[in-house]
Specification:
Layout: H1 7-19, E1 26-27, E2 30-35, E3 38-44, E4 54-58, E5 61-68, E6 86-93, E7 104-108, E8 111-117, H2 132-146
Parallel strand pairs: 1-6
Antiparallel strand pairs: 2-3, 3-8, 4-5, 5-6, 7-8
Amino acid sequence: MLMRTDPFREMDRLAQQMLATASRPAPVPIDAYRDGDHFVVEFDLPGVDAKSVDLTVEQNVLTVHSTRERSAPEGAELIVGERQYGTFTRQLFLGDALDTDRLEARYDAGVLIVRIPVAERAKPRRVEIGTGDSQSEAIEAHAQNAAPAHA
């Protein structure tokens, strides 16, 4: 039999169960980082069947929605129930600098990995800087072409 000594763990579990309802699903922990020309988000979904994961993007809002059923058989007496189950969801607001049309996702070992390319317009680029001499020459050439012809 399992023995526990942390008196606050049960209160935390009860609070989580009370706050995570169908109207307020449990949050999904994430890591997000930039890897070169991609923005990567990793969602922890341990024990979730890949078929229950729903990933959508609408107007730069990425939504992950999934469910996990309790694994104990019907009628079993639950001795310790610390694992979360039920509905899980997470929404991320994505910036315009990401190309959501080319988003890629894969699910492996309880982690949903979403890779979103950085849009071409948002990538750093080198800008040529003109010198004062070339600016003056361009203005002089324009003035000469615009001057009226004398008869």
